[in-house]
Structures are given as C-alpha cells and as structure tokens.
Amino acid sequence: MTNIKPTTGSERLQVLDALRGFALFGILLANLYSFIGYNTYSPEEIIALPILDRLVLFFIDWFIEGKFYGIFSILFGVGFALQATRFRSAEANFSNFWLRRMIVLIGIGLLHMYLVWNGDILTLYGVLGLLLPLFMNVSNQTLFRWIMALLLIPLLIHGLLYLNPEAAFWGSMSRFSADLKMQLGFADLSLLEMRTSDAPLEVFYINALSAIPRPMSYLMSGRYFHVLGLFLIGLLLARHWLPKIRNNTVSVPSVAVWLGVVGLVCSLGYALIKGAIGTPFALTEIGYVQAIVYHVGSTSLALGIAMLFLSTWASGRAQFIFRNLALLGRMALTNYIFQNIIAVFLFFGYGFALMRKVPFAYLPLFAFGIILVQWVFSSAWLSRFKQGPLESAWRKLTYRPAKSE
Known about the structure:
The chain is mainly alpha-helical. It is about 70% helix and about 0% strand.
C-alpha cells in the first residue's frame, strides 16, 4: 500500500496560506463582534449606541461579516482538491483518508463548541466536508449548477420562514434549550449575567445551552447550503487556478472586478438595513431584502477579495506581508481556536468579564492585539516545528503509518 505523508513546508503554496491568514484576521473581527456582547443588546439598544460604536459595527457589516468565513470556506474546497490530487497521483485511497480527516475535525469542533465557545464553525465544516467526495469527479458544468442551486436555497428558506414563522418546528431546539436552562435553575439569569458570572459552572452551562439551538439556526439561515456552495466554488476554482498559481501566471479576469463591485454595493445595502433595524435577521419584507443583499454581497465580495489577493501576490508586490500572513495561515486551526480562547478569557466570566464593558469602538484594537500575539506565537512555533500543535494532532489522528510488506 502506498504511504501518503502530510504536506511539507516546501510543498505548501504560500499564497494559499497567506490568504488563509488574512481570512483568519477577518474572522477574528467578526467573532469579536459577538464576544463584546452584540447578542446581549436589543435592536433598540443597538440603534441607540454612540456614533463611533455604530460606525465600527457598520464597517464590519459592510466589509467583514460573511466575507472572510466565505474566503475560509472557499479555501476549504481548494484544500480538498489539493488533497484529492495528491492521493490520486499516488494511487492511494483518498475516500478513507478524507472520512477520517472529517471525523477528527468534527470531534475537535464539538470540543471547541461545548468547552470554549458555542460559535464554533469547525463542526459544520467537518459535517459538510463529508459530502465533498460526491462532487470530486463531476464536470465543471454540473458543479456550477450545484453551486447556483445551493446558494439559492437560503433565500427560499428565508421566504418559507416569512410565510410561516409560527411553525413549531423552527423554535423546537430553542425551546428545548430554554427548558433545560430552567431545569438547571438558571431561568432568571440573562445571557449577559451567565456569560460574565463569577461562577465558572454558569459560564460553561450557558455556552453549552447556547450551542443546542445552533443546528436549527444554521437551517433557518440556510448556512448548511451556503457553506457547501462555497466549498464547491473552491473546488471549481482549484481546477482552474492551482496550475496558474504553481506556474506564477495568475491574472485577474474582468469578472473579478465586477464581483467586487457587486459585493461592495450589496454589502453596503446589508449594512444600511442592519444599521436601521438593529438585527441581522428579520422575518419582514425589509428582512428578506436584507437576506438577498447579504448572500449576494458576501459571496461576491469574498470572491473579489480572494482574486485581488492572488493578483497582488502574483505581481510580486508586498511579499513581506504575504510571508507574515502565511505564518498565521499555516497554523489556521490552532490560531482559530487560540483566538477564541483568548477572547473567552477577556470577555467571559472565566477571566476579565469585559462583555458590554468595552465599547464596540475598541474592537479593532482588541483584534490587532490578539493577531499580534498569534503572529509572535506562530513565528516562534514554526521556527522549531513543521506544523502547529493542533495541526500536528489532526495529522497524527488522520494519517496512518505505512504497513509493512
């Protein structure tokens, strides 16, 4: 049996690591949005925030929200294509490898979701990643049709919710979580009170309770379908762009410029609507418009940013920046969980309990501070080891040693 080993540093494509590191910073900005306490405010309180706070939130809604997890999702599809190509070249069993890889990722994600922060995205990636081998050998035309269908489904679901918002099914997991909260004796405590409690058990319980409705919220927002569609975009792009990246012949087609323009305009519309109604999701006419511009804008701008990033790299400019972003991207799994652990200790009751004590205007300062700590850690770690600590554990649990003949 052919023995497939993990990709070494010399085999990695630096530009993909750099783009992953860049996306990691955007995801940090988006997640701090929640850590500072956005979900503990009512829409009326959001609208009444000081102007500087609202400007920072507006900037994130326009340029950050949905775009960088979109880039991360596209890169997940590219990574799948890279792994599949390596195994095909070695005539090794890729399906079994990928199954193990996704099961381990789901395990890491569940631990992260329940022990660290309920906003985990890894579990979703692992579950949806199990479906990717089904698309490995389909034609580009079929892949494109699947992408269009998957990206449309979230809007159909939103319309169904709007037409029938009182259906008991949609609130089933939230009710279960609320009932469990009552049975545990926390019925009178708000989300903010439990997040910032001096009792660690209360902080743990509210995180676990908040994780319970997450699968249903993904269904209501259509995220299952949106993320799988982004994975397939990555798979499709890999077929066209990876040979160009390897040969350093990347050029940006004019469609990338138009994607960026459409993304900016639609995302501006989303930010304006969210700023006016104080919520990212509403079952109203304006809420449906908001959903349309969010999905079109976030996907288009994610693609536009990624293509502009690749073009800048291919031009040879800003290589110092790319090298340093690649340090973060090579340890993306470790850094993603690490930045959430830092945020938990800053904003939850486990540590400084700063939730709602810090203005949203300070969010960029926290983001730059955390990413600087991560860059120092990544630089020091990768100077001694080939992979980050969690990447190494993922590798050991995924790759099998060579069998003796």
